[in-house]
From TrEMBL:
Name of the protein in question: Phenylacetic acid degradation protein/carnitine operon protein CaiE
Pfam families associated with the record: Hexapep
């Protein structure tokens, strides 16, 4: 069971097809749509305002989602939030990628199909136009996101959209083995799946 908390009368609303890792925390006025993956260590804190995570998003390990009082932060359909990213009161558009350890500050609006590079810092009130690739601190647009880039992003996100069901079916607490089994399987199948997605 994930760490799901009511706060000040608000209970999170989480679609049954979504998976919240038991080591993630979801608090208060949070609305999570279908086929969303939330990884371990993620903190989604809707205590002072609302957090909306639309269908098909993923919020990976150690991400933080929060906001200033009285505001709403939104991840639109298919938003892909990389490990350790912080989204504070921003709106992330449909089918965007936010790279690892990037920070998006309050009232940032990122339009659809953008890529925010790893470690980028997007200052408050920045408006990021559709299909922008943003990098640096402060983040600046360096180029347009190409069709090939957004296709790569979309296919990678599809793996995360399949992950909730896989976690529901196979993830369980266990005692560690003390030795490697003689017949331990390889993960070639996972690599093949990624290659098929990447090259489709």
């Amino acid at each position: 069971m994930a760490n799901i908390f009511e706060f000040n009368g608000f209970k999170p609303v989480i679609a049954a097809s979504s998976f919240i890792h038991p080591n993630a925390t979801v608090t208060g006025n949070v609305i999570i749509g279908e086929h969303v993956y939330v990884g371990p260590g993620a903190a989604i804190r809707g205590d002072w305002g609302q957090i909306v995570i639309e269908d098909g998003c993923n919020v990976q390990e150690n991400c933080t989602l929060h906001m200033f009082p009285g505001t709403t932060m939104t991840l639109k359909k298919g938003a892909h939030i990389g490990h350790g990213a912080i989204i504070h009161g921003a709106t992330v558009g449909e089918n965007c990628l936010v790279g690892m350890n990037a920070v998006l500050m309050d009232d940032v609006v990122v339009e659809a199909e953008c890529i925010i590079g790893a470690l980028a810092f997007v200052p408050a009130k920045t408006h990021v136009e559709k299909r922008s690739l943003m990098v640096g601190n402060p983040a600046k647009k360096v180029k347009e996101v190409s069709d090939d880039m957004i296709a790569w992003k979309t296919k990678g996100t599809a793996l995360y959209q399949a992950l909730p069901k896989e976690c529901m079916d196979t993830l369980k607490p266990c005692e560690p083995l003390r030795e490697i089994e003689a017949d331990r399987p390889s993960q070639d199948k996972l690599f093949e799946t990624w290659e098929k997605v990447k090259n489709a």
